[in-house]
């Protein structure tokens, strides 16, 4: 599934649609409350991890921090329930661990940057996939793509660090 299609599936509109069909007692959707709730959580965490404009930048009082924390808690609770009660998890073990690492890392990085004087954090800058973008554009020369990726990662790291006042980074 590509990102565009996933965004359509895990959207606020889908969650609202599920709730409407539940209220209308549509066959097969009477008990879809948890699915609608999960869909909305995925939508919200995706938005929190993709803040790109300074006017929407994450500050210490931004709701995005709580959204990330809540999704991380849900990942942890889901795994704990799987281990203790044998419930089915919504993703593979590797995906669950990757979600945990990503969410905890972004949460910690936001906290670190804000504590070092950053006025705001743009999480969308942390999640750009330059290599994937170059492949989408048809740049198939892997060596030059990797070299370009290395340069871009260095530039992005510098850009992220530059958003924090008096914050030093060494690459």
Automatic annotation (TrEMBL):
Residues 1-52 form the Transposable element P transposase-like GTP-binding insertion domain. This is Transposable element P transposase-like GTP-binding insertion domain-containing protein. It comes from Haemaphysalis longicornis.
């Amino acid at each position: 599934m590509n990102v565009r299609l996933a965004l359509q599936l895990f959207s606020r509109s889908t969650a609202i649609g599920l709730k409407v069909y539940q209220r209308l007692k549509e066959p097969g959707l009477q008990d879809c409350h948890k699915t609608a709730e999960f869909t909305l959580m995925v939508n919200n965490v995706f938005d929190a991890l993709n803040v790109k404009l300074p006017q929407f930048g994450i500050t210490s009082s931004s709701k995005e921090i709580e959204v990330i924390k809540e999704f991380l808690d849900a990942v942890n609770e889901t795994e704990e329930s799987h281990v203790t009660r044998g419930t089915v998890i919504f993703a593979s073990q590797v995906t669950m661990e990757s979600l945990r690492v990503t969410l905890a890392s972004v949460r910690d990085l936001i906290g670190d940057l804000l504590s070092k004087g950053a006025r705001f954090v743009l999480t969308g800058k942390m999640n750009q996939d330059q290599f994937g973008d170059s492949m989408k554009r048809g740049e198939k020369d892997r060596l030059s793509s990797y070299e370009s990726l290395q340069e871009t990662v260095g530039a992005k790291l510098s850009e992220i660090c530059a958003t924090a006042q008096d914050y030093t980074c060494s690459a």
